[in-house]
């Protein structure tokens, strides 16, 4: 469909209200965040230039995307209610424009914002988070944490590694073992060591007080030694957690990471799977919330803009509540990660379709 004057008018109102409201709240959020973290900045002597350009400048895209669907909904409710109270919606529909045709500029604007959200979430924000997380790790909080004791990892098909404990301070592990299995012959190799240490310069692991068993059918060879430098298909990052490390992974990296960790038998990837699905579900939520917003606020009512905004904010917080609860159930329970991300869209999609048919009559 070709854009008409009324389409351009609605698109300008839609996008203008969206960017104005989200810019205003971003400034407010930054002010509150500065007041909360000012003690950390002073205590760790964070330079002002890094606070502004490394932390907060990279924080803005993440915040905009985090609440884009919410501000899309509020923007639609606000300016459409105003159009309705000024009887502009009535004039448009009375001129022969159908409700479906009225939806066109709204959904077109929502589609643009959804595409923007998808691009930000999967490509722009992960890149910006690299610098922001470096600042956060140095001046606010330590983002790395050792895994629990007795770490079991499958580094490749048929190869299993065990480490009793691992220290992130010196990249050293205690009580190490590695076993290799063959589908036909069973156990073919076993390495045990009292200690392992990673050399970041050479990329090798130094193993101390070790013995190796090579098993070939009925033949077994035993090798003992005190010190050996060797290459193992194991990285120090496999042995500790990096808090919310999915923040720096783009669309392709987070999917590759999940596949690799599933192969290693890592049970702590549910949050990554939820994040993967949310990066698609949240942009789609922009379309759902726009449909609800137009159907809800395009009718002139006695309460005016205040009533529409009250109902709209209630629905928006209902969306956020369902999203948070389903995310917790998926992360700490047995709720499917894909369903936790898409459940709010399913529920509010039904609400939107119901309101659409009610309004189109």
Tell me what you see in this structure.
It is a single chain. With 361 residues, the chain is α+β, with helices and mostly antiparallel strands. The chain has two domains: 5-141 and 269-360, no CATH class; 146-239, no CATH class. Helices cover 61% and strands 20% of the residues. The chain has helices spanning 5-43, 48-66, 68-85, 88-94, 99-139, 251-264, 270-297, 304-332, 337-360, and strands spanning 144-146, 151-156, 159-167, 172-182, 186-199, 204-216, 219-230, 240-242. The strands form two sheets. A six-stranded antiparallel β-sheet has the order 2-3-4-5-6-7, with no helix packed on it. Strands 1-8 form a two-stranded antiparallel sheet. Helix 5 (99-139) runs antiparallel to helix 7 (270-297). The longest helix has 41 residues, at 99-139. The two termini are 23 Å apart.
Give the helices and strands, then pairings.
Elements: H1 5-43, H2 48-66, H3 68-85, H4 88-94, H5 99-139, E1 144-146, E2 151-156, E3 159-167, E4 172-182, E5 186-199, E6 204-216, E7 219-230, E8 240-242, H6 251-264, H7 270-297, H8 304-332, H9 337-360
Antiparallel strand pairs: 1-8, 2-3, 3-4, 4-5, 5-6, 6-7
């Amino acid at each position: 469909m070709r854009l008409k004057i009324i389409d351009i008018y609605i698109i300008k109102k839609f996008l203008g209200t969206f960017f104005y409201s989200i810019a205003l709240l971003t400034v407010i959020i930054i002010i509150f965040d500065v007041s909360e973290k000012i003690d950390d900045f002073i205590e760790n002597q964070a330079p002002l230039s890094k606070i502004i350009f490394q932390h907060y400048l990279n924080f803005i895209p993440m915040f905009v995307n985090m609440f884009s669907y919410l501000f899309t909904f509020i923007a639609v409710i606000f300016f459409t209610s105003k159009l309705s109270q000024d009887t502009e919606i009535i004039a448009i529909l009375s001129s022969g424009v159908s409700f479906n045709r009225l939806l066109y500029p709204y959904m077109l604007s929502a589609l643009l914002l959804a595409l923007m959200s998808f691009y930000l979430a999967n490509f722009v924000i992960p890149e910006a988070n690299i610098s922001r997380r470096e600042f956060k790790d140095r001046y606010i909080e330590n983002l790395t944490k050792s895994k629990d004791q007795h770490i079991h990892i499958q580094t490749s098909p048929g190869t299993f590694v065990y480490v009793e404990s691992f220290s992130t301070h010196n990249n050293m592990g205690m009580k190490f073992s590695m076993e290799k299995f063959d589908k036909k012959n069973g156990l073919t190799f076993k390495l045990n060591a009292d200690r392992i240490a990673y050399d970041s310069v050479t990329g090798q692991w130094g193993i101390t007080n070790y013995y190796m068993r090579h098993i070939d059918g009925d033949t077994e060879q035993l090798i003992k030694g005190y010190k050996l430098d060797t290459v193992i298909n194991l990285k120090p990052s496999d042995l500790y957690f990096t808090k919310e490390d999915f923040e720096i992974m783009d669309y392709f990296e987070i999917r590759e990471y999940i596949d690799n960790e599933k192969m290693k038998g890592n049970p702590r990837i549910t949050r990554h799977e939820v994040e993967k699905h949310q990066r698609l579900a949240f942009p789609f939520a922009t379309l759902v919330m726009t449909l609800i917003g137009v159907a809800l606020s395009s009718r002139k009512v006695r309460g005016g803009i205040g009533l529409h905004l009250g109902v709209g904010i209630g629905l928006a917080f209902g969306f956020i509540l369902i999203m948070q609860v389903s995310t917790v159930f998926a992360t700490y329970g047995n709720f499917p990660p894909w369903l936790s991300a898409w459940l709010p869209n399913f529920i509010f999609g039904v609400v939107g379709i119901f309101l659409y048919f009610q309004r189109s009559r």
